[in-house]
Amino acid sequence: MAVSGQRRRPVVALYERIADAVHDGTYPPGSTLPSEPKLAAELGVSRPALREALLLLQEDGLLTVRRGVGRTVNDRPPRRGFEHVQPLEELIGAGTPLRVRALLRTVEEPTDFTTQHLLAPARAELRFWESVLTGEGTAAALSHEWAAADELLDRVHPEFARALRATETGAAAKPGGAGRGTSASMLSVLVGASRDTALSAHSGITATLLGRRRGEQLGRPADTPAVLVTQVVRVGEVPVLAAKHMLPTGAPALPVLQSH
Fold it and tell me: Is the model's pTM score more than 0.70?
């Protein structure tokens, strides 16, 4: 059912006006919006109303606020009507992807988490990647990612299987060996290998505390509040990747889309 402009909340109607201007090229990707006073005058609205709409646009990934620059239009504003599976370092990077620093690249037997979400048999061998995502020198998130067993990937998504092997082989050739140094997340490898393969994903979000070990990895106290995001990515009905992402208080905003 369509919703008329008259029935929209004023801030939503203003949000749409600015979003339309972004999508029609009035404010093209990479451009800087006029100052708040000038933009409010151009749109004929109050500055408090404008500020609220701009905040929503920032949270939804269309705009980025940069100190000393102002509000800029993201290079790849989200398209309307659908979304893409997107690596966390791009999703929370607000137009400037975070850096991925590899802590561990190894193979391990399934845990309760991976048994549940990847349907892995008890003695399977699963690739496990542990990474810290950093931006402007600050640790913003800790990611744990697992891929389904090689035998399954070779059958349902051989391109992803080959890309993982190539990535890990490249890391092994670098100083420090295969355990560290890979500057990519597992999900980014999956997305890059899936140009001709449709992916679907679902996530869950819960509140928690970092704890001692994760606090040390992120440079935060153990009792720091955090958001835990769990994620499962599928090819058809088959799960091929499962992940846990820990975002402490103060991490970049995480845009969330709810659908049904």
Answer: no
